[in-house]
What we know:
By secondary structure, the chain is an all-alpha fold. The chain contains 4 helices and no strands.
Amino acid sequence: MHQRSPFNSVDEAKKEFEKIFKQKTGNDWSTAETSFVKQPKKYNLIKVCYSYISYRESLAPFDYEKCAEAAIDKKKRNMIEEIANYTMY
């Protein structure tokens, strides 16, 4: 079964999308990627940069001894270490 849509064709749906995009952003969809201009009180495009790292790489252990010391006083550092101590939970 195909998805139901109020449009009879893909071209009709594209035209409606382009019309709404123009209303919301003040820019044409056909040139949005190359010459998008932020308009006052309109939506803005946000460029998203996806990074692809493996799950194992993101959880790879590292040596805390090689990390630089924080430049905060000892009282504050001890408090942060106590709050962030996952072994307490």
